[in-house]
Amino acid sequence: MMKVNLLFIIFILFCLGTNAQDKIVIDTHKNDLLYKSSPVWITMMDDPNANYYEACKAFKIYWEGKIVPAETEGEAMDLGKVDNIKGKQKEQDIPQESQQHVYEYKQFKHWELTIKNMIDVETGRIMSIEEVQQIIMKERNIK
């Protein structure tokens, strides 16, 4: 009887673990759909509690298959200068969703580079300036 109870408990724990993994897969898929359809990366870069890796993932998924702004040109002018297989594209041929977030695209690329050194590598959490200063002081042996 004790063996049956132990096996039953193991079975229940296994089922709970499987459901948790399924929920993670479903949540990930739901997030990916949200990231593709909505520019949530814009609000993520303004949120100090956002996960850096998740924000970068949201940005990447959103821009998949879209015409991206040239990073060296001005905010509004560069979409018309994106090279296509057929040559230069005309501005009127560029989808509205690509034109809509040119400024935020460039802002995110800048944020991505400047925040990169403030990331807790294990968790993706963006550290505060004070936390970064403490790490620098520890490395320099300053108290």
- Percent range for β-strand residues: under 5%
Tally of helical segments:
6
Counted up, domains total: 1
Distance between the termini: 62 Å
Number of strands: 2
Main sheet makeup: 2 strands, antiparallel
General shape = elongated
Q: Which regions contain 5 or more consecutive residues with pLDDT less than 50? A: 18-26, 80-89
Binned, the helix content reads 55-70%
The succession of helices and strands, N to C, reads HHHEEHHH
> Which strand order spans the largest sheet, edge to edge or round the barrel?
1-2
Write down the oligomeric state. Answer: single chain
- Using the CA coordinates, give the radius of gyration: 23 Å
- SSE-based structural type: mainly alpha
Mean of pLDDT: 74
